[in-house]
């Protein structure tokens, strides 16, 4: 669901991922990042 929403409203998904990166399962976090641009994806993966 986050993956699909990231195509429509990426800023909302980005904020959600930043707030919840420690609680989310790693697989779900990675799937949510798939549709972001490479720079954003790399930044979020470093969290």
Would you give an account of this structure?
By secondary structure, the chain is mainly alpha-helical. 72% of the residues lie in helices and 0% in strands. Helix 1 (2-8) crosses helix 2 (10-20). The radius of gyration is 9 Å and the shape is globular. The mean pLDDT is 95.
Number of strands: 0
Q: Uncertain runs with pLDDT below 50, 5 residues or more?
A: none
Listing every helix as H and every strand as E from the N terminus to the C terminus, the arrangement reads HHHH
Structural class: mainly alpha
Helical amount: over 70%
Largest sheet: none
Average pLDDT, all residues: 95
| C-alpha termini separation | 21 Å
Strand content range: under 5%
Helix count, DSSP H or I runs of 4 or more residues: 4
Shape designation: globular
Radius of gyration (CA) equals: 9 Å
Topology readout:
Blueprint (H helix, E strand, L loop, with lengths): L1 H7 L1 H11 L5 H8 L4 H8 L2
Short description:
The chain has 4 helices and no strands.
Key phrases:
mainly alpha, 4 helices, 47 residues, 72% helix, single chain
